[in-house]
Every structure is written in C-alpha cells, then in structure tokens.
Design a protein that fits this description.
283 residues; alpha+beta; Phosphorylase Kinase, domain 1; Aminoglycoside 3'-phosphotransferase, Chain: A, domain 2; 2 domains; five-stranded antiparallel beta sheet; two-stranded antiparallel ribbon; 10 helices; 11 strands; globular
Length: 283
C-alpha cells in the first residue's frame, strides 16, 4: 500500500510509510502523521473490526490500563500511537504485568453479568457478548467454546467425533467449576507475549479481545503459551488468590477456547493439544 492510498483512507497526509507485518485482517505499517510516529492497521475490505478494536482499547484505557492512544478509527484503517520499546528497562516484566492484570481484574460491572456491552473480536473472529448471562458456565459454553468448535468443524479442522466430545463437555460444564466463587472480571482476552509491549514506564497492552469473565480464564491463557512463570503468579496472587481447582480443572478447561481459536486460524496442529486437554478432563 502506498502513502497516497493510506492518506486517502484517512483523509489525512501520511509520510514515511514502512511495512511492519501482516495482521489477521490486513497489513500493519509505521508512518508519520501530524509530525508524530504512528502505527496504521489496515484491512483489505471495509469491516467493523478496526473500529471495535479502537473501542476496546479506549475501554481498557478508561479502566486504567496502558494501551496505545487511538488517533483515528475508520472501517478501513486504525491509527494508533507508536509505542517505542525500551531495551534497558529497570523493572521486572513479570511483576509489572502481574500488577497491571491484577488491577484490571478488579474491574467488574454493575449488572454482574458475563459478556460485554457490545460484540468484540479475537483475531479475525467475532466474540458474541450478549450480556444476559449470570451463569459463567453457560456463557463460556454457549458464547465461547461451542461457537468456535462449530466454526472449526465447518472449516474441516475438527472431526465430528471431537466436536461431540466438546458438546458433551459443555453440557456438563456447570458441574466442573464452583461458580459461587466466580465474579465477572474485565479481561484483556488475548494475553500473551506478542500482545505486550514494554516501555520505560511499564507495560503496554495491545490487540485486546475484552469481555467480563472468570479472571482465571486469562491466567490459563498465559500458561498455554508459557508467557510467564513463578514471579508473575507470586505477584498476582498477592491481590487475587488462585482457586483450589485452578491447575487441575480450570487450566485444561479454559485453554480449550484459545486452542480452538488457533486451530481455526492456523489449522489442525493445535488439535493434538486440544485432545490432550479433553483427556485431562476425562471427556
């Protein structure tokens, strides 16, 4: 894409356009806009994803999370503050991220419902967030695991027998976790090392997939990709103690949704891990 084309999309003059990477819905660039360095995310066809991402970032910012400033948001392009990574930070990444996430997870909602006020996105997929669920197990099964499992099946990634096992798991989900101890927490929703930037002043979160859910959903996601270890959990649990069922039940259960997302994106390589989680849960 040329600087002229990006300028047309934004109706503003950009310069020094440099390709950075290819995202899930389009290419990402660094450029100069109004004498400042910015990141420009684009999409090949107009869709609501970039505007939803802008809203999610702004909502996180409102709740005290450091995210890139949203400068311009359209269906074709999203312009964000460029975050300059700091190579010589004087803080522990795990501890600072644990503090930030623990603070985010203290945010709940007045209705005490799971979901969000609008549908959000994860990668190139819509996350349905109809906020009518007081029941976490029902929300997790009906709004997260089953829709993604069916998408994987439709794409030929998930065999029918495996889909049936997931459906069986979801039908009895309420018996596996103690929902009396769970309250809705605001989640980043797609937390791993690739969505964390470290500035001189601390951690900055990018590419959110927010909703209100069990905060331990986020922690299981972190463990899935070995993002953090002992130091993170020691700091995080100063604020939020882990449930007694976290490692044995919640980790394999809560990793099913992100594994399905990755299987839908990248193919069947993640199905082996998915089967391992189901076997661990004796499904």
């Amino acid at each position: 894409m040329t600087p002229q084309r990006v300028s047309e999309l934004l109706d503003r003059e950009v310069s020094d356009l440099t390709y950075l990477s290819s995202g899930q819905i389009g290419d990402i660039y660094q450029a100069r806009l109004d004498h400042r360095s910015v990141v420009i995310k684009t999409t090949a066809e107009e869709r609501a994803d970039l505007m939803i991402e802008a809203k999610m970032l702004q909502d996180l910012s409102t709740n005290g999370v450091r995210v890139p400033e949203v400068i311009v948001s359209t269906k074709a392009a999203l312009v964000l503050e460029y975050i300059t990574p700091c190579r010589s930070i004087h803080y522990d990444k795990e501890i600072e991220t644990a503090k930030a996430l623990a603070s985010l997870h203290q945010v709940s909602n007045d209705s005490r419902m799971y979901g969000y006020y609008y549908n959000t996105t994860i990668a190139s997929f819509t996350q349905n967030n109809e906020q009518t669920q007081y029941n976490w197990a029902l929300f997790l099964s009906q709004m997260r695991i089953l829709p993604m499992a069916k998408l994987c099946y439709d794409r030929g990634v998930l065999e029918k027998s495996l889909l049936k096992r997931i459906e069986t798991l979801c039908s009895g989900l309420y018996r596996r976790i103690d929902m009396s101890r769970i309250t809705p927490s605001l989640l980043h929703g797609d937390i791993w090392s690739g969505n964390l930037l470290y500035e001189k002043s601390g951690v900055c979160f990018i590419d959110p997939a927010i909703y209100f859910g069990d905060r331990e959903m986020e922690l299981a996601f972190l463990l899935l990709f070995h993002t953090f270890g002992k130091e993170f959990f020691e700091e995080y649990t100063k604020v939020h103690a882990l449930s007694g069922e976290f490692y044995e039940t919640k980790v394999p259960l809560y990793q099913i949704y992100p594994l399905l997302v990755h299987a839908a994106l990248y193919g069947g390589g993640y199905i082996i891990e998915l089967k391992q989680r189901l076997e661990s849960l004796k499904v």
